[in-house]
Amino acid sequence: MSLLIKNGEIITADTRYIADIYCEGETITRIDHNISPPAGTEVIDATGKFVFPGFIDPHVHIYLPFMGTFSKDTYETGSKAALVGGTTTLIEMCCPAKSDDALAAFELWMSQAAGKSACDFTFHMGVTRFDDQTEAQLREIVKRGISSFKIFLAYKGAFGVDDTELYRTLKLARELGVIVTAHCENETLVSERCKELLAVGKTDPGQHHESRPPAVEAEGVHHLMTFAELTGAATYIVHLSCKEALDQAIAARQRGVRVGVETLIQYLTLDKTYAERPDFEGAKYVMSPPLREARNQRVLWDGLRDGLIQTVATDHAPFDFQKQKPMGKDDFTKIPNGIPSLEERINLLYTYGVKTGKIDLHTFVNVASTQVAKLFDLFPRKGAIQPGADADLVVFDPDYRGNISAKTQSMNVDYSAFEGWKLEGRTRDVTVRGQLAVRDGKFVGTLGRGQFLQRKPSHF
Ligand code: URP
Ligand code: ZN
Ligand code: ZN
Fold first, then answer.
1. Does residue 439 belong to any structural domain of this protein?
2. Which of 31, 113, 135, 295 has its CA 20 to 30 A from that of 389?
3. Does an H or E element contain 55, and which?
4. What span, in angstroms and rounded, lies between the C-alpha atoms of 128 and 137?
């Protein structure tokens, strides 16, 4: 089967030109002008459109048992939403409970995706306990194609690890060349502040950010950086939300610590006043780390532009507003944490980043695709438009005008955090390994066709 994307403006992390892209089977085989395709080739006219490499979301939750409930998407709904939004590869956090066996958890998460996903996928392996048995199983999981771990310095008593576990995980990662992704918030500070707020009757969603101010996140980053410095492990801070935390990461980088930084589309576009909305509506915007004061947005956009921040993710964690967020109606600490955004990351990043001049088109591609592929051992199979790369391509219409609404979204959740927001540009067509998965904004892909992406560690 062959596919020709004709006359689009190809934009990669470092090039920009108009050409045709010819794909045979699952791969890009030729990029040239005026390619005449053999009979039977599917042709997509991309005149006046951008063509980007398929976008990669480095931080999503599809299957997530969390805070007494489960996140709403499955790989059927989640991969569909990802593709409609231009994301062709998902990196999901595999998050075992502390008492779970790591290998069994890895197999459970794999069973949720394999044979169900319409887009390609891989996992960061969550390390929520570290002992001799876990260590042996982590070595086995790396042999099976995983090259990144995930640790939590937050969520005391649930996913969080102690300092001995943190040290031993980083030592193992250093030995194996695995990069360690980390949720950085000081869990003791969070739990003590939560108790204090509740004790004086401060129970509403707007208290969530009071329980974990910027200093709590900055301390988490500083803590991780100290451990990374002493072990030499490669690290990656997930969902970084504020200047104070970024300053700690930059300071560590300047003294030689190996650290990548991820921010989220939510932190770039929303601020803490959303979580303070009355009548419990703020619960739609409760996530951790929390939404911050608006002044941080400029710092994050500039950080992307200047290469201080490497990636933009979603941390997609969808919980229904009507049935799940009210678990914390009288106690903000019980509101399931997460703001769904898997479907909208790329369109929002384009509209509110590129169109407003905060980042250029190459930075846009780099932070949402190429740099992710490089950090997580997927490049140049993913994140590139060149012969030999997977034919994961996004035809993007810069002239589209529309609005976001929960009524039209593919994500399986009953609200949109961006209801009514305008879009100036959107993903029109998407291919996954040479097969059309989205045509004119509608899913036309194949559930179950998504592949598990085997990765080899490179961070030695
Ligand atoms: O609030 C969030 N971030 N929910 C998902 C779990 C996590 O910490 O990544
Ligand atoms: Zn987290
Ligand atoms: Zn997460």
1. no
2. 113
3. strand 55-60
4. 13
For residue 217, the ligand closest to its alpha carbon is 2
What is the average pLDDT across 131-143?
Answer: 98
Residue with tokens 């976001």: 404
Ligand 1 lined by 315 (C-beta under 6 Å): yes
Q: How far apart are CA 125 and CA 229, in angstroms?
A: 22
Residue 292 lies in a domain: yes
For the segment 192-222, what is each residue's pLDDT rounded down to a tens digit? 999 999 999 999 999 999 999 999 999 999 9
Position 364 in a domain: yes
Residue 275 is part of which domain span? 54-375
In the chain, the number of structural domains is 1
Cα(353)–Cα(42) distance, integer angstroms: 33
What secondary structure, in 3-state letters, does 257-291 show? CCEEEEEEHHHHHCCHHHHHCCCCHHHHHCCCCCC
- Residue 316 CA to ligand 1 center (angstroms) comes to 8
Asked if residues 367 and 374 have their Cβ atoms less than 8 Å apart, the reply is no
223 lines ligand 1 (CB under 6 A): no
Mutate to test the pocket of ligand 1, among 57, 59, 60, 61 (most ligand atoms within 8 A of CB): 61
pLDDT digits (tens, 9 = 90+) for 327-362: 999 999 999 999 999 999 999 999 999 999 999 999
CB of 150 closer than 6 angstroms to any ligand 1 atom: no
* Cβ-defined contacts of 109-112 (< 8 Å, 24+): 109/63, 110/452, 112/62, 112/63, 112/74, 112/75
Q: Per-residue pLDDT tens for 282-297?
A: 999 999 999 999 999 9
Q: Using a 6 Å cutoff on CB, does residue 300 contact ligand 1?
A: no
- Which band of pLDDT confidence, cut at 50, 70 and 90, is reported for residue 242? very high
Q: Per the domain annotation, does 369 fall within a domain?
A: yes
347 residue type, one letter: N
CA–CA separation, 262 and 107 (whole Å): 27
**CB-ligand 1 contact for 335 (6 Å cutoff):** no
> What φ, ψ does residue 201 adopt, rounded to 5°?
80, 15
Altogether, the residues listed in the chain come to a count of: 460
- 54 C-alpha to ligand 3 centroid (Å): 21
Q: Quote the ligand 1 centre to 284 CA distance (angstroms).
A: 13
Q: What is the CATH number of the domain that holds 100?
A: 3.20.20.140
